[in-house]
Each structure stands twice: as C-alpha cells, then as structure tokens.
Amino acid sequence: MRLIGLPATLRFVEQYGGVRVYIPAQANAEHPFAELIGLDNLRALCAEFSHDGYGLRHPMPTATAALTAVRNDRIREKHKHRTARELALIYRLMSGRWSAS
C-alpha cells in the first residue's frame, strides 16, 4: 500500500490474495498486473522487489480484515439511514459483528 496506494492494493489483493505472485524485474504495459493496477504502480513494485535484475516470488496476503473493513465502510456510506440489523439482512451478514456469513 505504501508503494501503490489503497485502491490499487485492494484490486491486487482481491485478484491475487492467498497465492504467490511473481513480481518481474522489469514492467511492461502488457503484463496482467499493469492492466490491473496500472503501469506506474507495477514499475514501483518492480523497483522495490527486484534484485540484481531478477524478479521475486512473493506471497500475496489475503488481507481479509482490510477488505472487510472497506466493504463495511462502503455499505455504511450507502445506507446511512439503516440499522445494523437491516444491513445484516440485506447483505446476509452477521448483525453486530459485520463479518461475512
């Protein structure tokens, strides 16, 4: 997140969370990561994680807690006038704990 910001990090984690990814030494516009997070962001990752001209295999965390917090904030913003119980029923979440069921 420090390198590419929250929105790009969330897209990256949503797509690849829980698996190992190969971050190449050099970025190009055709790389799937460039399409997902933008070429400049991919270049930032390459610069940070490459070593001596080689890329790096990196385990991508699932970031479940962060993704859940973002989801909950979006729901709250969209439905300010509803109670937690109503939102739990609409989104099939456990009321009070705001976790996925």
Could you name the key traits of this structure?
101 residues; mainly alpha; 2 domains; two-stranded antiparallel ribbon; elongated
Average pLDDT level: 87
Rg over alpha carbons: 17 Å
Order of helices and strands: HEHHEHHEE
CA distance, first residue to last residue: 27 Å
Tally of helical segments: 5
| Basic shape | elongated
Please give the largest β-sheet.
2 strands, antiparallel
Give a written overview of the molecule.
By secondary structure, this protein is mainly alpha-helical. The chain has two domains: 54 residues, no CATH class; 37 residues, no CATH class. The chain has five helices and four strands; from the N terminus they run H-E-H-H-E-H-H-E-E. It has a two-stranded antiparallel sheet. A hairpin with a 4-residue loop joins strand 3 and strand 4. The mean pLDDT is 87.
